[in-house]
Specification:
With 351 residues, the chain is an alpha/beta fold. Helix content is 30%, strand content 14%. It is built from 12 helices and 13 strands.
């Protein structure tokens, strides 16, 4: 089986499989026409191979996730059942986040996959917390492929500074990356406040959740109208140009809430501040796998975000705390996670 397919319900979910695609090639699969068009739009004119009028990767539309005719390996970033012929194809679940929010959809769906690419002990603990039972032989420990570019120092920081058009490169950069309504995202609560309070001393990069990307335009206009000149926006739909790792590479601290990005940010070993909300549908995690146990908690009127940011930026001891949390949550962290995934795919193709 030489064909490799990548499935997801939303464009941003492909970001987790993209490092694998970059090494193996393949075809992306969507289940709706509008998602096919969105995929082509956001991945157009990239360095990814594919050709065509958009110069984007190849994409197939398969309604209702029915891919019975496909032969090869199907890697899914969404918690959706892949309806395939197990005599022709092998399904692998990679997921699209390592956060504390519980899996969407039915947990039993995950039990239908032939294999799971596992990012770390936290990944396993989440499954157990949802009473999901995956046989050990189906759990393939690879680590977190998205980390590889960051760990291997393959991110052009100067190019990304220019892409965001950051004017004052001497300022420290604060990344604000909240989740959306599923998780009680804090963008509408704290977005303008953080702009007002942080603009004076820092560059603020706001990266909303994919489902809140439509709010960027109005918030950008509001900031410009009110004279805030040091706020920038990262569009999560642009998984190539505005990749999370690009934002991580140039930021010095991140503010978030219940977004899974708080665990991805551990790869930087930089400080994290949690903007408090009242979302309670979270996994039960031991303290050694919970960023909430070590990050400062911002509580609106009761907190001063500038003081919290300054204090964390000037605390050299935090790097050890975050490094320990990184290794508690993710396997390996050696920049070779993608290669482990590729090696496994090649091994089952040769069987």
């Amino acid at each position: 089986m030489n064909n490799i397919y990548f499935f997801a319900n939303q464009v941003y979910q492909y970001g987790h499989a993209k490092p694998i695609y970059d090494k193996t090639g393949g075809v992306f699969v969507v289940n709706k026409l509008n998602r096919a068009l969105r995929f082509k739009y956001y991945l157009r004119n990239t360095e990814i191979t594919g050709g065509g009028i958009f110069k984007a990767p190849k994409v197939l539309k398969k309604p209702k996730n029915e891919v019975y005719d496909l032969e090869g390996v199907i890697i899914s970033g969404s918690n959706s059942e892949i309806k395939h012929d197990k005599n022709k194809s092998i399904s692998i679940f990679i997921g699209h986040g390592a956060g504390d929010k519980k899996f969407g959809g039915s947990g039993n769906t995950l039990e239908t996959y032939d294999y799971h690419f596992v990012s770390g002990p936290k990944h396993i603990h989440k499954q157990k917390d949802m009473d999901i039972h995956i046989p050990e032989e189906k759990l393939i420990k690879i680590g977190y492929p998205k980390f590889d570019d960051y760990i291997n120092d393959r991110i052009d920081k100067e190019k990304y500074y220019d892409f965001l058009n950051i004017k004052d490169k001497e300022r420290r950069n604060i990344l604000y990356a909240p989740t959306w309504k599923w998780g009680n995202g804090t963008l509408e609560i704290y977005g303008k406040r953080f702009i007002k309070e942080l603009d004076k001393n820092y560059n603020l990069i706001i990266r909303p959740h994919f489902h809140d990307r439509g709010k960027i335009k109005l918030l950008k206009l509001w900031a410009k109208y009110n004279g805030y000149k040091n706020v920038y926006f990262s569009n999560p739909a642009k998984i190539i140009k505005n990749s999370t790792m690009n934002d991580f590479a140039i930021s010095d601290l991140m503010i978030s809430d219940t977004s899974s990005i708080i665990y991805e940010y551990l790869v930087t070993k930089k400080p994290i501040i949690i903007a408090n909300n009242d979302y309670d549908q979270l996994h039960n995690m031991p303290d050694e796998m919970s960023v909430l146990s070590i990050a400062k908690n911002y509580d609106g009127e009761k907190s001063d975000i500038c003081d919290m940011v300054a204090e964390d930026l000037n605390n050299p001891n935090l790097v050890n705390l975050y490094n320990e949390m990184l290794n508690n949550c993710f396997y390996f962290n050696d920049g070779k996670s993608t290669q482990r995934a590729v090696d496994f795919i090649q091994s089952i193709q040769s069987d």
